[in-house]
Amino acid sequence: MEKIILTGDRPTGRLHIGHYVGSLRRRVELQNSGQFDKIFIMIADAQALTDNADNPEKVRQNIIEVAMDYMAAGLDPEKSTLFIQSQVSELTELTFFYMNLVTVQRLQRNPTVKQEMQLRGYSDEGADNKAGIPVGFFCYPISQAADITAFKATVVPVGEDQEPMLEQTREIVRKFNATYGETLVEPEIMLPDNAACMRLPGTDGKAKMSKSLGNCIYLSDSAEEVWNKVKGMYTDPLHLQVSDPGHVEGNTVFTYLDAFCKPEHFEKFRDCFIGKKVSFTFNSLDEVKDQYRAGGLGDMMIKKFLNEVLNDTLEPIRQRRHELEQNIPYVYEVLRKGSEVARAAAAETLADVKRAMKINYFDPGVLDQLIQEQSQKYQG
Amino acid sequence: MEKIILTGDRPTGRLHIGHYVGSLRRRVELQNSGQFDKIFIMIADAQALTDNADNPEKVRQNIIEVAMDYMAAGLDPEKSTLFIQSQVSELTELTFFYMNLVTVQRLQRNPTVKQEMQLRGYSDEGADNKAGIPVGFFCYPISQAADITAFKATVVPVGEDQEPMLEQTREIVRKFNATYGETLVEPEIMLPDNAACMRLPGTDGKAKMSKSLGNCIYLSDSAEEVWNKVKGMYTDPLHLQVSDPGHVEGNTVFTYLDAFCKPEHFEKFRDCFIGKKVSFTFNSLDEVKDQYRAGGLGDMMIKKFLNEVLNDTLEPIRQRRHELEQNIPYVYEVLRKGSEVARAAAAETLADVKRAMKINYFDPGVLDQLIQEQSQKYQG
């Protein structure tokens, strides 16, 4: 059996380093591992519209942004199919049929949906002070099942918080196959090993990096913007004097270093630790942490180091992005071609699904058989 | 503006005289009135699957039955477009987008949905002893809105019980147009005048004619089957002796006569009232009723009369149906062609919808504009 990946993002804003550390970096690794036969990367505009129905322009503007972030970060259209969800009509048709296999009650029990609803201020009680839940949003686990199964994905690399979503897909696959015969492929979740993927807090130390909180470092930020954001980062509020002992845990600068620092950085960016008053030589992040805990290592010094470390990853992305920005027609062409490839793949699955459900009345061969069957009924 | 009708039925069984009196007879009249530019008659297999997901064969078998009943009853493929819902993929795509414009709470408040749920033994409480509500079934008012708007229907002829459904469609139209600009047509409900359409009880006197209750007279029943069913009909349980005064209200035979009897029937079927012991001459249904109330008019006599009255309508339908049964390929060809016509109409609306939502990125002209717009952003 082919090994196929499906993954993607809602195009509601440019991608930030939280996306990079949480999923994008790993996707690039998986893409380049050569272990997968097909990789589909979906820009989920239709899903974004389920809770942005009144702001289609935001979604539309961000499709190209996400596409450029993807390619800048290393997703390669030669190796991965980048496509736009809304351009694959077949996905809505699959969603429609899968909706018959899931109960309203089952959706209401989905913890991810519950959490996402809370996040958006939707009420499941219909309380007057809260917005009602758009049906499209309520049903997005079913739409996700359509996305995953349309491409016969065997592997879906997501975080643990998405486990209930994938379980919903697996349930739909089992229900469909049990009802209509073996047709759909049951996907496996691919959870991250801890080192590879983590949830990055915002620059303000808040749990989640979010555009609305203004605490994100974007992949497309200039070196100057990154430095300004790093300078303003939340560290250890008790570390008032350089000489004070500092805390590493819960200190955002160290969390980011954990995510981005590589062994070669200590030699490469040794100048960061050479100050006017004190100087250090570090060979590992553990040594930096020990010194910070002991006291004497100032926040500005570690921020300068983090800035270099971040830019070491971000500068090549920034450069590739700049090239793409100068070649917008190429980016759209990638998406157009990718959407065509995706559509062909989804159309195959939809044909399988309709055949299994026996609603392919006018397909070649089927019509003749139907005519024969029904005619006999009235000649017998 | 064109006057366009959309209407249809779920293919879960052959059509009975309840369908005929409740809607089909009127559709034929509307079709032949020449007052409408287009008439779309939908065999709603996809909707039938929302609560028959585990029995696609039943739905599949009944498509041709419903189609033959339609044509036998007078729906003319030259005047009306007969089509199969599932063959118009565009309807599922419209449903998908409209789902963003309706809240879960709004659906839960829909009295028709509540009633239909009760009828099917679905629970909205998730009680263990009741089946959960399939999401597809829960969302069928949205799917109906897609059906109606896809064909730019201006008029939907339905019974009063369907008013909340049509109001849901009108709400979706208003929300869509307000959000994305004037695109969809708001349909009007066309309620029956009382004489034209009524809900016929079952032959057992129960409120609803239903296949599962076995109390239906089908359009395709033979004369013998009809006579057997009429003989067994529920009349007035207090009318024990022919000489007893009888009740007309709640007496199913009279309800059916109200629905089917025409002035010419009294002359045409006068023999029914000539008995061995007593004979009557009636010139109107009121006279028959008066005599029944006064006593002396036996149930068998009025049943014979009803049988003739029914067959006067049913015999031509039966004959046309028999011809169609001998020409199954023609019936499928009508459906295939009709579905093609319907698909072209729905595709136009879907293109309008995608244009309004601005998710038609790769349409001619649009892509060039997008490229220009985005390129400028990065050259400025």
Task: State the main characteristics.
mainly alpha; 5 strands; homodimer; three-stranded parallel sheet; 380 residues; Rossmann fold; two-stranded parallel ribbon; 2 domains; Tyrosyl-Transfer RNA Synthetase; 16 helices
For the largest interface in this structure, which chains are involved and how many residues does each contribute? A-B, 67 and 67 residues
Q: Return the structural class of chain A.
A: mainly alpha
Q: Rounded to an integer, what's the Rg of chain A over CA atoms?
A: 25 Å
What is the residue-mean pLDDT of chain A, rounded to a whole number? Answer: 93
Number of strands of chain A: 5
Quick one: biggest sheet of chain A? 3 strands, parallel
Query: What's the quaternary structure here?
Result: homodimer
With strands numbered from the N-terminus, the spatial order across the biggest sheet of chain A is: 1-2-3
Instruction: Indicate the percent of residues in helices of chain A.
Output: 40-55%
Listing every helix as H and every strand as E from the N terminus to the C terminus, the arrangement of chain A reads EHEHHEHHHHHEHEHHHHHHH
Low-confidence segments of chain A: none
Broad CATH class of the largest domain in chain A: Alpha Beta
Count the DSSP helices of chain A. Answer: 16
Could you tell me the CATH topology label of the largest domain in chain A: Rossmann fold
Strand content of chain A: 5-15%
How many domains of chain A, as an integer? 2
The CATH homologous superfamily name of the largest domain in chain A equals HUPs
Q: Which architecture of the largest domain in chain A per CATH?
A: 3-Layer(aba) Sandwich
Choose one word for the global shape of chain A. Answer: elongated
